[in-house]
Amino acid sequence: MKQDEVPQDQSAAFEGQKKPLYVIDEDGEYTVALSSGWEAEEVVLDQAIAQFETLYEDARRRVEQGLSAPLEYHMYHQRMDISVLAQSTGFFKWQVKRHIKPEPFSRLADNKLARYQEALGLSATELRSMPKEDS
User: Structural domains in the chain?
Assistant: First the structure.
């Protein structure tokens, strides 16, 4: 992208901030220019956020029905999926899938639970329970 083509669509998601983009200046050299957002980027971001809201609301229902552990809700609430949570904790994806089940989750060793706590930024108490209201 050329320096004079940097989008400046005042994206609400940026909350008045700007992000740096690598662009080509008039001399053909790479440089950094600031962008206030791009309409297409904002549409995609809004869709992704809506998808995660649906995922964590569905996970909340499964937890309330005893079909899933609170870990699943917290994972989606933090806008992670199984792959991202596995990478963040060092577990294999199959292990995360297993830990999402209520029985295996209830038996997690403290050192394994601590890995989820760190990745999700939650205490053990928070991780083992559901919030009263979505925050």
Answer: 3-37 (no CATH), 41-127 (1.10.260)
> What dihedral angle (degrees, nearest 10) is formed by the CA atoms of 78, 33, 17, 37?
-70
Q: What is the pLDDT of residue 40?
A: 86
Note the pLDDT tens digit of each residue in 74-96.
999 999 999 999 999 999 999 99
Q: What per-residue confidence (pLDDT) applies to 133?
A: 67
> Which residue in 100, 34, 111 sits closest to 73, CA to CA?
100
- The distance of Cα 12 from the centroid of its chain, to the nearest Å, equals 19
Interior angle at CA 105, CA 67 and CA 53, nearest 5: 55
- Residue 112's nearest CA partner among 127, 132, 131 is 127
Whether 8 contacts 35, CB under 8 Å: yes
Rounded to two decimals, what is the model's pTM? Answer: 0.77
